[in-house]
Structures are given as structure tokens and as C-alpha cells.
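Budget justification, computational time. The allocation requested in the original proposal was used primarily to generate C-alpha cells for proteins on the priority list. As evidence of use, we reproduce two of the resulting records. The first is shown immediately below.
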Amino acid sequence: MEYLSYVYEKIFGGQAGDDADPQGAFHTPRKVICFGNVLLDRLVKLEDPELLERYGLELGSKGELEIEKLNQLATEASESSQCLTNPGGSALNTARILKQLGTDALFFGAVGSDKNAEELRRIFRERGIEARLQTVEEAHTGQCVCLMYKDNPTLYANIGASAQFQVQTLSHAVSHEGQSFLRPVERKQILYMEGFFVPQRSEVCDYIVQHLVRERRRLALNLSAPYIVRENAQAMLKLARLAFFVFGNRQEFEALAKAAGGFGDVDELAKHLLQAGGPKVIFVTNGSAGVQVITNYVEELAPAGPITFEDYRAQRVEELVDATGAGDAFVAGFLHAWLEKRSLGECIRMASNVAAKVVTQVGCNLP
């Protein structure tokens, strides 16, 4: 129990500021707006892979499970090992790290009307996480189980109420005085969308790109997982064409190149995206090997330039503890530096540095 208490303290840290309000009546539009699934995460360290084998789960895999099976898996895992519960979801992780870095972000998502939602709201208040949460009656709040075996995470989730997030939640906020979260189009603002948000919310995604993204109010997209890309290839390709920033690991880009059709490899896909119109920066992460940046970006407000490919080395990690939040942390580090008007190279180095620090902790959190 001492270990569990230590880890819990590490993730949640000290007390948040007094202005934390999960319902989000904020009068200053934030520079980053995040759209994603709201999950109550359970992290369990396994002593052996027997539980994975019994449930037919491949070590290191990601996917979705029916809520009954997910609850059963979480219960069995918790009985045999120490379990840590904390707020999760890719874009929510990024919003949390951004706040720790000093950039306030606003998060949009949906929860059920249950005890898990109450627990998440309490944590949001304590941590000062700014969120506008739609409550979906008769739906359960999303959950995720992360089973760690030999530092290799296996993640399965059921997004629950998150799948029922409605476009009216956004349009109402945009149109009502005192609730709008948008900055003027001539000022920098990032609308960040995780790939896990795309399935079942095509109307919301269309609203964001058609009505909110324009001029310096830019879309950033995270591909999130190979299975998300494979199962939603055309929707992801459409969003990637419209995004200013596209984040993903090599496996996710390879899945998109194959599933979207007509692309021989990641380089060919990247060239297609960059020729879709306007400047764009594509990040292909390769774990400990670093990140490849493919872009036609020259400088702010300048037209697209020639396509360039450049590799950046990853920051050295002395002791890897938990890599599950590395990608989310990379995005947070990059966006934080970008909004501070640093050069592209400086932003990438900041992103790599933040990711390297997060993987030394349990959960997606800075030390």
C-alpha cells in the first residue's frame, strides 16, 4: 500500500488552484481546445501474463471491449495486483500535461450520470482541469484498463458516454455570449482532436472543420492507434488533409497509407497530405529512435514551401517506467513551445524532452 500511495501522490501531486470548474464557465478563451474521450483509467501491474492469456489479449495490444467484460477484467486484475485509478483519455492527458507546462487548455467531452463521472469531476476540480462535460443520461462513463507486464502496456477501453457527445454542445457554446471558447481568427489557437474521438462523431468532426477551423485557428490531429486508422480510414484521411499538425507513430501512418488505398508507403502518404493545400507539419514518431518531421512549413503566415524530411533523435531515458502516455506528452510539449513562438526545431526538442520525462513516471504525468 505504501507503493500505491506513493504512485497516487506522484500522479495527482499537490492541490489545484481555486478557479478549477469542470463545467467551464470560462471568460478567457484558451489557446488549446482539446476534443476527446473521457475515461476513468485503471492501471494494474501484472506479475505474469496469465490474465492476458485467459482473456485472449495479446501483450502490447490496444482495443475496445464490452463494458461487462472490461469491468470483469478490471476486477480480476485489481484482486491480484495493485490498481491505480486516475483520469484518462488521450486528449485529456495532453490537456493535463499542457497545464503542468503552463499552458491552459479547455477540454470537451461527455460522461455518464454515474459515480465514475462524479469521481472524475472531483479530480478535475482538485487538479484545476478546465472541462466542459456533456452529461449523457442512462450511459456509463468511459473506462480504460491498462495492464502493465514487464513495462509493456496492454490497453483496452469502452468509451461509453463519450460516443454520444453532441454537436449542440459546441454550437451552443459558440453562439452564447460569455461561453464562447474561440479566440479571434487572427490569433493563434489550436483545436486538438484525438483519433479515438473520430468514430461515431462524424457530425461533431464536420462541425469543427467547417465552422471553427480557419486562418490561425488550426486543427491538430492525433492518429492515436492503428485499429482506429484501419476502421475509419477515409474519415481520418479527410481530417489529416485539413489538419495543420498531424501526429502519429510509424505503425499508425503505415496503417493509414494501407487502409486509405493508393499509397505505397508513409513517405508517399505524407507527400499527398502536404500537397492537399497550405502549410502542414507531420510528425512520425519512432519510439526510442526519435521522430521524423515531414513538412512544407517555412514560417508563420508564409505560404507552403518545398517538402522537407528531417530526423530528430529522441531524448535519452535513464529508466523507462511507463510509456503509455509518451505520445500524448509529446503533443503537449510541442504545442506548448509552439504557442511560445519558438522555432520548429526548438518545439520538437521540447516535445521530446517532455515525453522523455513522462515515461519515467507511472501514468501520464511530469515528475
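The second record produced under the same allocation is shown here.
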Amino acid sequence: MQNKYNTMQVIGGEGDLNVGGLEEFMLKTELSKCGLSYAVVAIMGPQSSGKSTLLNHLFRTNFREMDALQGRNQTTQGIWMEKCEGIEPFIVAMDLEGGDGSERGEDDTVFERQSALFALAIADIVIINMWCHEVGREQAANKPLLRTVFQAMMSLFKARKTTLLFVLRDKTTTPIEILEQTVTRDAKRIWDSVRKDTSHINTPLSEFFHVEVVALPHFELQKDLFREKVALLSQRLVNSISEGLAGDRQPVVSASEFSFSTQQIWKTIKENKNLDLPSHKIMVAKIRCEDIVEQKLLHLWSNEETVRADRQTRDIASSLTLKGDWLALEGAVQSGPVSNFGNKVSSILERYFSE
């Protein structure tokens, strides 16, 4: 069924907030009239893992889905939202761009962090979509991403209790009880590793997040069973929202302030440089470069004794050699202004760093 509330890209792939589109969404859906009787459900996870498909089956939305026959590539760019039609209370579904995609490359993960933090800050329920066989792993299980956004969440926004729903796709033979124990344990370990201020140093994960774990059968190989399980999950989520159990409603802004609050949250996230963390490869390269610079500087200063002895027999100008030029120049500065100082310093550094 076609949703009359068409999907709207609230944040573009370059990180630009669609203020006009957000205002139009507020007007068209009459969200501003809902007071506190509304909820936001967001989904995040790796690219091509079926996030949009899951949202569409859960909440009757019409997010664009990947066509497997055309290849596994990026379908959702940026962050999209849509009102869930025919469902009470008022629910806004948010579909986030998938992480770990080849389009952005391994070195560009800033937007992934920003969008994940945005989801945690604005949503009552955050669905973390992941493959069942990735449970217990590091990168594939989103552990570094969660660690980063947990840290930023603590420092940037007022605490509110959010439901983290881990949806494990393509369930294996591992019992759900074991899977749930592993996911919950990993989430607690991530939380415990996050730096906190003194007022929250001993605060458990459960004070901020309600963690749930469900597993779903294979969408393509077990379609009927998949639809059956998703229908049950849909009813469970809607009931949870209706009963006010999805999250703590006290800190939630009134629907009339939703647009303004969304704009301020995204602005805060964009200005937070702690999310501009380099990828592992860039960090390794940076550390290696720092090591090379340190070695060169140590080599430079190790020639001090040689130059001091040389000063006793030669004047400063003649001692500007590859081994002693830096200290000789330093001595000249002590005596007064040095002509062409900038060029001399550049020449010294270029020769040392070119070795």
C-alpha cells in the first residue's frame, strides 16, 4: 500500500539538514499536534543488511529497498524518515544510511558516527540490525561505533532511557538465549569502557538503555516464517510504544518542538570534533609519521657535542653544515637578528626530512 506520507530525506549524504523538508513533514503529517504522544524508531547497521526491508515490514513504510538482482550496493544515502501510516500512536520511522559501504570507503566513517549518535539522541527505539553469525565479533558487531557514540552521548546530551533492540538476521542454530547473553554482555562491556564524569562513574548501562535481542529467520530462504516473526515483533513494538515502555517520556520534547530540537541536535553533532576520528589505517600512518619525525629530531639534537667542539675552531657561518647547521643557527639567533632566517630554517628541515 502506498503511504500518502512520502519518505523524506531529513539529512543528505553530505550531512546537510533538510530544514524545509522537515518543516513540510511536520505540517503534512500534523506531528506538531501530538504533544508527547509520539515515538521515533530508527534503524542502523551495515549496508545491504536489509534495514529498509525490515522497517517496511514492521511499520508499513515505503523506504526504498535494495534490488538484489542489480547487485549489493548502497540503496539509502543519508537519513530518511516517514510517518508510519495506519498505526497508533504516531510513530516516525528513520532509516539510516548503512555503514561499512564501499561508496564511502574504509577511511570515511565520520557520517556513520554522526548518524548513529543522531539516532540515539532522537529515537525512543534504536534497532541495530546485524547478521546473526557476526555476534561476538568486534568490527562487524558495531562495537567500535557503539563505543564512540556512547562516549559522545554522555558528554553532549541529557540522559534519557532508550531501547536498544538488536535484531539478529538469518538466525543460526545457536539458541537465542546464548545469543542474547553474548550481545548483552558485549553491550555492558562497551558501556563500562566509556569514560564518564564522576556523577555517572558507577552508573550501569540499564540506567540509560534498555537492551533487547531478537533473532529473525532468513528473508529470502524462509519468507513465510520471516513475515510471521516480523508481524509478532511489530505488534510487540507498537504495544510497547502505546504503553509508554519504549523509553522515558519525561525528557522527550513536545512534538511541536520536534523540528527545532532535531535541528539543534544535528548542529551539536556536526560541531563535535570527537566524532571526526580517523580510521585505523589513518591512525597507523599518523603514528608512523610521528615516529619518523621523532627519530629525525633525535638525530638532529644528537650532533650537539660535535657542533660545540667545532665552534671553538670555526666561526658560526662556517659551521652551517649538515651536522651542525641547526645549533649554529641557534647560536646566531642568540647574538641578534639573522638575515634570511626563514629560508635557512626551511633548508635545514628539508635536508633532514629528505634523508
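A brief technical remark on that second record: The two ends are 68 Å apart (CA to CA).
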